[in-house]
Structures are given as structure tokens and as C-alpha cells.
Amino acid sequence: MIATRLHPDKQSAAQAVAREIAGLIEIRSKSGKATVLGLATGSTPLPLYAELIRLHRESGLSFRSVITFNLDEYEGLGADHPQSYRRFMEEHLFRHLDIPAANIHIPDGLTKDAAGHCAAYEAAIRDAGGLDLQILGIGRTGHIGFNEPPSSCETRTRWVHLDEVTRRDNSVFFGDLNQVPHGALTMGVATILEARRIELLAFGEAKADIVARAIKETPSDGCPATWLQRHPACTFHLDAGAAQAL
Description:
Largest sheet: 7 strands, parallel
Strand content: 15-25%
CATH class: Alpha Beta
Helix content: 25-40%
CATH topology: Rossmann fold
Order of helices and strands: EHEHEEHEHEEHEHEHEH
Number of helices: 8
Structural class: alpha/beta
């Protein structure tokens, strides 16, 4: 069952989730354990990343014992491409923290062996002890990560073909739809569901319909976000706009 938490605005939601992450890091650090975070990209988590940076700078929150795995990366984009998710994460989070470079994991959009690379990514998550907490956004197609419909609850990290709705939505970052890749590497639904906690962020009226579908519809391949209903500790953090269809 999906829990919902309504926030007055996206900044309040970001602060709430950042506090949860900070608390998790502090608890696990005291016991000498790493914290394994699954991270998302796009405009939705930006306030969260800004708040984590603030906690690091102003409150001394250390990320030295944190290991991260990003959800996805565009096919064909290297780390130096301005729209790669590697570049995004460096600019908006990693370069501002004390996280060791060796602890950062992002799928390689330039891999020549997608199947082998994705299998190794899954193995790295397992070797790290699994994801303690996964951050998610939600796309208008119901995708989580880049798991476009149809995506079963048994899918693992793999190459996917991007839906045209997703490509159009993301074209604002590229400036031209023709520049948006047609494929991506993404964690699978099963990979996401194995995280011990899931925190999904959604803001604005444009997300209202898909948020309602994710929460109310019977879980199915046709709306991958509905599989989150089967997770024992999944919370949707919403503002009034995103919650208006509930």
C-alpha cells in the first residue's frame, strides 16, 4: 500500500525527505555501516538535492559512508555530455558533497555491452547490501526510472526504448526533440521494489492524473508506477497540485 504525505510546497517536501535521509545516514554511520541510496534525476529532486547540500554545509552531514546508485542514463550520452545524468548529478549534488568518487554508480550510456553492463550494475547493488532508500519521480506515462509501459514487476536493470511522451517531456532540456535519445539504461521495477524504503516526489497539477492512477489502479504492466502498491514502505510526497485527483 502506498502512503501519501501532503506538503504545502515542494521545498517542504524536500526538507522532509532530506531529514529522513540524514537520519538514516547518521544511524547507520554510528554502527559503522554504509548507507546505500538510489537516486533520481530531472527537475523534481532538485529541491531535495539542494537541501542535502545545505545540511552538509551548515549541519556537517557527511556523505563519506554513503554509496549511491542512480536509476538510469540515456543511451549514447557520455559523462561529458551536458544532458547526461552523470553530468547532472555532478553539477547538482556530488561535487558539493564529501562522497568518495568510488562510491558513486551511474549506468554507462556509452557501454558497448548493455546486457553485461546491466548485469554488473545489479551485482554491484547486491554487493553493496541492497538499496536502503530509493528516491523516485514519476513520469506522465507512469514510468519509474525509465521503466516505460509495459514493464512487469519482474524486470531488472536493462536497456529500454523511451516512450515518445517521455521524449517530448524531456526535450525541454535538450532544446530539440531530435536531440533526445530513443533509448536508455534503467534499473528494473524489481530492482526498485527491493529497496527497503521508497520515497517518491511529485509536484504540480500536471502530475495529478498519473499520481492518482499509480495509487488507485490495480497494479499492472500498463502503468509501472502501480507496482509500488506492493512495496511495504513506499511514501508519495505531494503538493496540493499533484494530490488534487486523489
